[in-house]
């Protein structure tokens, strides 16, 4: 077995080891899973109560409401992405480990998506029924969230890494990340509305897919560099 093969196996073990450790920690702190889902459900439920219960009105705003609430729920959970590791000292071990830091960051982002983005994606169609989303939009809503929520987690990791050393990160993290979330919100909502109106959605989905691929390549590298800056600073 060559040295490169040994290195690849070692890196893969580091990736899976970080994944298993973070999943175990998250399931010990179940509030990290419940809070975003609870916020998402309550926020969507408040719109019919606070604006109008008319089905025609709700069907027109359903896509935007669901996407905005999913985005805000993701923002709510980003604060804890690296904070626990910073508190117990394991973040420094990740940074100085011989394994590529972006691989370890990618593992942590994957955990964040599995416990936040994926449940939001699965819950959204149920709430869409309450919002009277047209039947044609359900499939597109699911696909756009399946493409968009991992992109939200990847981009959010950069902001979480930049603010990990600060005491109060909520507002600053939101100000850093929210402008980068706007294109995802626009094309995600646009795709669902286009489907509901009988229009083609291939362009919207292609752009969402492109943003996901770009974030998948660039965000772990940027987040890793941001972690080094935060720890050294």
Automatic annotation (TrEMBL):
Identify the InterPro entries for this entry: Cyt_c_biogenesis_CcmB, Cyt_c_CcmB_bac
Record keywords, A-Z: Cell inner membrane, Cell membrane, Cytochrome c-type biogenesis, Membrane, Transmembrane, Transmembrane helix, Transport
- A Pfam family per the record: CcmB
Q: What is this protein's name? A: Heme exporter protein B
Task: Name its cellular compartments.
Answer: Cell inner membrane
Role noted for this protein: Required for the export of heme to the periplasm for the biogenesis of c-type cytochromes.
Give Gene Ontology CC terms: plasma membrane
PANTHER family for the chain: CYTOCHROME C BIOGENESIS B-RELATED, HEME EXPORTER PROTEIN B
The signal peptide, as residue positions, is none
Which family does the record claim for this protein? Answer: Belongs to the CcmB/CycW/HelB family.
Query: Could you tell me the gene encoding this protein?
Result: ccmB
In Gene Ontology terms, what is a biological process of this protein? cytochrome c biosynthetic process
Q: What is its main location?
A: membrane
Q: Topology relative to the membrane, per the entry?
A: Multi-pass membrane protein
Which segments cross the bilayer? 33-51, 57-78, 110-133, 139-164, 171-193, 205-227
The highest taxon in the source lineage is Bacteria
- Which molecular-function annotations from GO does this UniProt entry contain? heme transmembrane transporter activity
